Amino acid sequence: MGKLSVSILSADLAHLADQVKLVEPYADAIHIDVMDGHFAPPITFGPVLVASLRPCTPLVLHGHLMIEMPESQFEELAQAGMDIVSFHIEAVEDPAPVIRKARGAGMRVGMTVSPPTPVESLFPYLEELDDVMVMSVYPGWAGQRFMPEALPKLEAVRAELDRRGLQADVQIDGGVKLDNARRCIEAGANVLIAASAIYQAPDPAAVARELKAIAEGRA
Ligand code: DX5
Ligand code: ZN
């Protein structure tokens, strides 16, 4: 059940379809970092990019919404072809209606926590979620250093999901590299997200293949 989700934040965006094709044999999803210049300082991608990418790949398109009022984008993202959205608990006052709204738009839904936020804050919602994403860098940029403080969070959420018999994915996002990926899987993640480890490498496909093997426990 181990998966690889490739973040296009480090890709050569002038050749996005080719960059996605490079990793397609090893990736389960494309991770699209949506930022609004408020919740996270940069401005990145939105529904227009998703609509362009959708016909280029059969992979799951997963939106990581680092934006205020995430619910305001759900309809447009869904229409553009987004399959699943993960919003930040820090960005909403009451997650329950936001979760319902994402499903109402026809998408699967997850939630995510920034480094200062305890993962236990997501526990009241676990039954409603398709995935939990633990951030191991601050929202904003690819290429930051992995924060090992994320590892006990992975352990805690995996233990709680197991205790309740839930199947949600546990994703780790930020600074994931070949040299720390196995620790993330051992701690309880079943989805590795990576941008710079793949797209800054001389051979992105080779790194993607290796990360996928680690996610699946084959390496
Ligand atoms: C950071 C983004 C991450 C980022 C990961 O705000 O949410 O998804 O793309 O990039 P790397 O893998 O380079 O840390
Ligand atoms: Zn992300």
Could you walk me through the main structural features you see in this protein, from its secondary elements to its overall organization?
It is a single chain. By secondary structure, this protein is α/β, with parallel strands linked by helices. The chain is 32% helix and 20% strand. It has helices at 16-23, 47-53, 74-80, 95-104, 150-164, 181-187, 196-199, 204-215; strands at 3-7, 29-35, 60-66, 84-88, 108-113, 131-135, 169-173, 191-194. The chain has an eight-stranded parallel barrel with strand order 1-2-3-4-5-6-7-8, surrounded by four helices. Helix 4 (95-104) links the parallel strand 4 and strand 5. Helix 2 packs parallel to helix 3. The model has no long low-confidence stretch (mean pLDDT 98). Bound molecules: D-xylitol-5-phosphate and zinc ion. Zinc ion is lined by residues 7, 31, 33, 64, 173.
Output the keywords.
binds D-xylitol-5-phosphate, 8 helices, 219 residues, globular, binds zinc ion, 20% strand, 8-stranded parallel β-barrel, 8 strands, alpha/beta
Helices and strands in order:
Layout: E1 3-7, H1 16-23, E2 29-35, H2 47-53, E3 60-66, H3 74-80, E4 84-88, H4 95-104, E5 108-113, E6 131-135, H5 150-164, E7 169-173, H6 181-187, E8 191-194, H7 196-199, H8 204-215
Parallel strand pairs: 1-2, 1-8, 2-3, 3-4, 4-5, 5-6, 6-7, 7-8
Helix pairs in contact: 2-3
Intertermini distance: 14 Å
| Anisotropy-based shape | globular
| Number of separate strands | 8
Strand content: 15-25%
Oligomeric composition of the shown chains: single chain
Ligand set: D-xylitol-5-phosphate, zinc ion
Q: Report the structural category.
A: alpha/beta
Helix content: 25-40%
Q: Write the H/E string, N to C.
A: EHEHEHEHEEHEHEHH
| Uncertain stretches of 5 or more adjacent residues | none
The neighbouring-strand order within the major sheet is 1-2-3-4-5-6-7-8
Q: Largest sheet, if any? A: 8 strands, parallel, barrel
Give me the number of helical elements. 8
> What's the Cα radius of gyration?
16 Å
Mean pLDDT: 98
